[in-house]
Amino acid sequence: MEITLQTASRQAEYRHAIILCCDARYLPFAALTISTIVATNPDREFDICIASEQALDTPPALTNHGVRMCQIDVGDAFAGFPTSERFSMAAYLRIVLPEAFVADYDRILYVDCDVFAVGGALGELFKLDLHGKPVGAVADNVKWKRPKKATSDQEKLGLNGPYFNSGVLLMDCKTYIGEQIRQACIDVTTRYDHEKIYFDQTVLNLALEGKWASLHPGWNWQWPVVRPLFEFFVDVQLVHFITTTKPWSDIKGDLPIRYRALARRFFAKYYPELALNIAPAATALRKGKIIAGLFKHMTRVPAFVYRFNLHGGDIRKVIADPTD
Questions:
Q1: Domains (range + CATH), the chain
Q2: Which Pfam families does UniProt cross-reference here (predicted)?
């Protein structure tokens, strides 16, 4: 099955692009993510695209930012891939981005719709040396805490080893296509029981075993509730809200105020109904919660220092062959 870029709202301007994949349901959150990218990277030299299976109109919030709205024809490429209420077929679109966009882009940065750009150096990411690998990614949060411990899906499959988070992926299009990664993903879903596959992340980790380079955690800072203070020691560029607690659904006020406030302001202007579930910035502080948070930080210091020092604190350093 050939993957094609069926329609695009405008021509490509640059040779690199940040691309988000979504359906109509997740379009408001994609718009929020893109609003953070354009705000923090005003002089960017890369395109920003939203890729979808169905034709989507440009969200009102993005009409002045030159976003490419792209419809991809994937045919039955994902037939038999597992889905759920939370993970639709849109979760697998990232797998075919290099094929759909190879005529337009040399490199693609795929980002999930629950990612905020907080740094202004995203253009530097496209210049990183991937050492001939088709994909650059950041180790999954689980491996930050316990590098030698298998993730839940690895345990089910009887596997272990390096494992990345699939929410931020730097893709070298020609290398990716040459390595036939899409076919490897299809082979994986055929070989393994769907109950043991955690959707796109499991599939990509299996298909890219030994074929991905490790990026600094600052490119995919996976925000767990227990470690906000560690951000002060890292040149974080992209914050990724990996749990079910998102800035737009943070009723309890667990996330930092700055993220909740950003989401609240954006949705209040463009999607008022989505602003209702965000805890107000004036949520009272609780001493017990602060003390518990500080204690959890203390218990995580060794793991954080280990992960941070793998890259020597340099967000430009890429590890060609991650070992954990």
A1: 4-218 (3.90.550.10)
A2: Glyco_transf_8
